[in-house]
Amino acid sequence: MTGMTLPALPEESFQRVLCVVAHPDDMEYGASAAVARWTARGIEVGYLLLTRGEAGMPNRPEETARLRVAEQQAACAVVGVSHLTVLEHPDGVLVYGLDLRRDICREIRRFKPDVVLGTGYEVETPFGFDQADHRAAGLATLDAVRDAGNRWVFPEQVDDENLEPHSPRWYIVPGLAGSATHGVEVTGEPLRRGIASLEAHAAYLAALPGHPAPADIIPMFTAMNGKAMDVDHAVLFRAHDLQAPPEFLTDTTQD
Fold first, then answer.
1. Do the bridges between strand 124-125 and strand 115-117 make them parallel or antiparallel, or are there none, so unpaired?
2. CA distance linking residue 21 with residue 242, whole number of Å
3. Lowest CB count within 10 Å: 61, 102, 108, 252, which one?
């Protein structure tokens, strides 16, 4: 979509968004500014963290886990998220597989989102090689979105836990201008809250040598992304409408 202004996500149709990430702080590198906009507009947003981030600091793992979950709760409060679920898969060695898919599927069936926000699963990104947990989380989330709608996949959740199958309409992943399909303008208050949500991870950021200040790094990213929407600040996504027919059935550009 080079040279074109990216359209806004159809957030007027959103009711519930479930954000699935590997670690505390993963949502706060830009995406939380979009969340702040959504919650201000009455959209219910839930976070599912697959680990407690216990391997991310020099402290003992249990101490780090308590600290990082507390900081994530504070970050959620800043952007209006009250539904936070933190699982205890091992940080740093998250494994793609049925256990992970099952747990994400359960949360999709519980929360019943019409939008699932996941993460990428590419090995290489514009920022370097992606961390292994991020890749495992992204692929498991993508598969769990489909799993959740099939009552014969993880049927014990339907039969024993009284969780009905659920099929989200949208699957979105934060993106960059070259690959994004849609954007969310976050100029003003959403950006301010997004910055504050990363600042809530104060102890974690202090343990990272040379980490730039959130008030410097987040506006820099959102300003770069804003150019794709012709606005001051934006968060970009690659969005998939899972209920739309395949493009090859609707392509009218061919002779």
1. unpaired
2. 20
3. 252
Q: pTM (2 decimals)?
A: 0.94
* Torsions phi, psi for 37 (to 5 deg): -65, -45
SS3 content of the chain, % helix, strand, coil (to 5): 40, 15, 40
pLDDT tens per residue across span 83-100: 999 999 999 999 999 999
**Alpha helices, DSSP H, located in the chain:** 31-40, 61-78, 98-111, 132-148, 155-159, 189-199, 202-206, 214-229, 247-250
85 DSSP β-pair partners? 48
What residues contact residue 182 under an 8 Å CB cut-off, 6+ apart? 6, 7, 8, 9, 172, 236, 237, 238, 239
Encode pLDDT of 187-244 as tens digits.
999 999 999 999 999 999 999 999 999 999 999 999 999 999 999 999 999 999 998 8
Residues near 246 by beta carbon (within 8 Å), at least 6 away in sequence: none
Phi, psi of 182 (to 5 degrees): -145, 165
Give yes or no for a contact between 27 and 76, defined as CB atoms under 8 angstroms apart: no
Q: Distance (Å, rounded) from C-alpha 204 to C-alpha 148?
A: 33
CA pair distance 203, 201, nearest whole angstrom: 6
